[in-house]
Protein 1
Amino acid sequence: MKEQPGSSAVVQAIASDLGGIGYSGIGYITSGVKAVKVNGVGPSMENAVSGKYPLSRFLVVYINKKPGEAPDPLTLEFVKFMISRQGQELVVKDGYYPLTAKLIEEELGKLQ
């Protein structure tokens, strides 16, 4: 067992070890490694969102504010950008799965 300082290092270590196995985000997949099926279920956006692929998780963003208070305007605009079309295009560009329209709608509702 080897501990690595981050996801990129995990992928680099696995790529250089024929018997290696590790856990990293889907956005770190390279030609030297592959994502594995678990119980016959492969990694895909649909399987990750539905929970069928057990090695998936959402990235959670926390906002430092008092309960019941609205976020400050700059923070609110940043969160809106993250879930906007432009923000989600950046997510895809980096190799990750974007939020579904339903999830974006739910998150926008939380900002009200």
Protein 2
Amino acid sequence: MRAHIDHLADLTRGELNRSIFTDPTVYEQELQRIFARCWLLLGHESMLPRPNDFFTTYMGEDAVIVTRKPDGSIGCYLNMCRHRGNRVCRADAGNARAFTCPFHGWTFSNDGRLSSVPGYKEIYLEQLDLDAHGLVPVAQIGNYKGLLFATFDASAPSLTDYLGDMAWYLDMMLDRREGGIEVLGGAHKWLVKTNWKYPADNFVGDSYHGPVSHKSAWMSGFEGMPRRKSGYGYEGFQVCPGGGHGFGVRWAEDKDVLVDMALPEFQAYERSRVDEAERRLGALRGTHLSPMHATIFPNMSLLWQGGALRVWHPKGPNLTEAWGWCFVDRDAPPEHKALMRVHQLQRHGTSGTWEADDVDNWVQCTNASKGYVARQYTQNLEMGLTDEIPDPKQIHPDLRGRLGKFQSEINQRGFYKRWAELMADASAPSTPVMPHTAHACEGAAR
């Protein structure tokens, strides 16, 4: 059964049917038409520093292994033995040249090839086609400024085309210093009884909730670290670059204002690096725009000030497994990296002051959407619907995408517009299009 999408999202009016957050039929269709087709974040290349390093993750509900092969290229394969379907790798990360299924001992090299089968001569009489039973590879792998993505759809556009103008804004987070960013340590992982779209929606453009949801943390003086000196308010923009992506920025008149926007503990570092950012990115991105939050459709999010990188793994219509990393400039001094790590733990970790606020909101929104009567009333996303900035280039000629004011739901509407387009696309294949040989898709090292 397929969900009828046309009555579930009316973005011209800023309305959503609440059943999209709870309906199992909608969720199953999302796995096929969104997660089996879109580019999904795997992790960061700093998580694979050496040949034969690997980590395991998910693409939708499909478990995958990501490995750096001996030649330096990146491979990504379903974490599934081709015999009975057991997981061939149970570890979160490590270094291995091969993966052996613990069920019957089929062994796969880290380029995906089936290299050894117990009883190959005696039981299979050498008739088992080893080449046809390697690990199933993803269709495409991409690397943008160290972020590793993959898709199961061989016909998907290139990663560069998929990101579009979003990449230009992402560079403010990923490429402001030589060497880009790196991820510190492993991932925090926690389960949230919410639909995956709620956290993605929150990060794509919801600056509106901050002064309300996080007010107690601010008033108590314990939001992880002391509050930034410049007031939190309405300066800045929500950027809707297309493709369902969204980016929030604050506007600074000059370098001094940009530095003053940072948390007090971070200001010395921000002052030390701002000139390099201006040389690399130009005056607009280096001096005047301060990144805040972002979501790359469908389920990757970032928070700049806290160095938070997130993936919202769907685990059912009402369950999400959140994965979070702390990212920093690779060339930052050790003391700043240590400060960022602690800040990430206190503010955005699994028990962080902000995280507790957000999680409770997402859970309660999901619970409210389960009721029959509640589902007869649409969700409202009309903030800024008639107040979009008509010509962003009047603000600055280099700005890209569509712009809303800092308090606007332009990005949520863009997110759900793309969601609805993919969900309603009757041309979506019933199964993913992908190579059948384990070595058909190889990712280049950065």
Protein 3
Amino acid sequence: MKRRDFLASAAALSLFVSDAWAAKKQAKSKVTTGKSGKTAKKPVTRRGRQKGKVTYKPQQSVAHTADDPVIERPPLGTSASRLPPVRAPEPPSEWRTFEITTTVNLKNLSGPTKLWLPLPLNQDTLYQRTLGHSWSGNQANASMRRLPDGDLEVFYCDWPEGSDARLQLTTHVSTADRHFDVTKRTVAPEREDILRRNLQASQLIPNDGLAFQLGERILGRIKDPVAQAKAIYDWVVDNTIYDPALPGCGTGDVRRQLIQGKYGGRSADINGLFVAICRAIGIPARCVYGLRTGSSRLFSSLGLRGDDATHGQHVRAEFYVPGYSWIPVDPSDVRRAISLEILSDLDSKLISLKKILFGVWEMNWIAFNLGTDVVLPGTGTTKPFLLLPQLESSGGLPDPGFQYSIRTRQVVL
């Protein structure tokens, strides 16, 4: 475009803009002046204030209390307004404290000897608090060691060759009964790495193949995750057998159960089966390894009958649903009650117990850890889970049934 053509176009455009502005100003004056000649009210802008006058009126009073925390009604436009409502969990009011004493006595050690004892959860929860540890004995070295993933903490000690070994470890733990409330879906979400870990398979707990096929058959068209877990729980209770003749808590070999089509065993086997099916259909789930510490208010077979907890090890389970966090279950103890209390499947007490143990843990039990495929600190040995004391001599890891004792009692601190 030549220079003279450009200047002519610019002049024409300026004239057009001037005419449009004059027309707009004239129309505005007609709107503000009525027939009576009085001036109309000034228009209200989108921000809720009159033109030419700055005013501010909050939509509602901002008051934050324990029942109405700040995250429930954050100021508009803040990042918190995009978060889901989250209420702080309410801690239980009734707690019991147990003293757990583990005693080890070994005679005439043939070589250097190492000992590992599982310890209670190293992080406080709404149902368990570890108050402290103390120990005495003639060990050469002693310390508490935690695995890198934080799921397991152990007490470690060792003795030199040619000596007797003595150790007494005392732990104080407070517990409160754990309840799942279906009406409160306002719990903060779990970390994604923890959820992914509890969807993965382990040595003995698969998450695909036969476990997936079984889960699909159990669920049918059920879509709600809580209802899905309840269906799996009911199926495990109705189709497994508790075998009190097995040592410890069983092997926890769910893969073998699925291959053989024979479901059951002890707590590690039955609750491990529940966990495997949940993981296979996409619900994070995990076994929780622990120890019975007191008598049961539900059935005598579900607690200690005295202070001897040497053979009181017991595995429980929990699954995760967004908004509810981890939900406790124990299908194994339903089968245990049927077996040891000699109950029929139609007994009213059993029907009530089946309902209770979906969402409730009676805390006459303490949780040790969540670890699977555990590598003991200082060794290259991998174990499916750590629940019993482990002893290693110069010849390697012997049978875990070496002589030790565990005593518990309820105390007032």
Protein 4
Amino acid sequence: MKVIDYLERSSAKYELSQHRPTFSAQQMAAEEHVPGMQVAKPVVVDADGEYIMCVLPACCKVDLDVLRRQLGTERVELADEGEMAKLFPDCSLGAEPPFGSMYGLSTLLDDTLEADEEIVFQGGTHQQAIRMAMSEYKRLVNPQVVSFSYHSR
């Protein structure tokens, strides 16, 4: 299912924009002229055999040890490209939208991103961006809000 179809069926309020191809959330932030703290970057982890989508600011990284403790699991590691391609067959690799529920995944939202009034994220391709109010995102996804990231330099 394409993210735009999902948003339309959910009567979501959003803005769609096109930009030059970008291959990281930080590049997209620059292309869209928004701070990296406002770009929602999805990262999928394998937690004891269960895939979980973690959504955090573009300029941050997942602290796997903190996440493992919060989830109460023995093992948490990043999903590899092969796993991502299987989980998101309708998306370009690395351009997945932060909608775990759309793909049957639990979604965790980092608390540093929750404070933003609106977020920007990739729409399944490397040249599409979607802008949406945080309240609208939370209505659609109903993520669990936790603290699991650190600012990368």
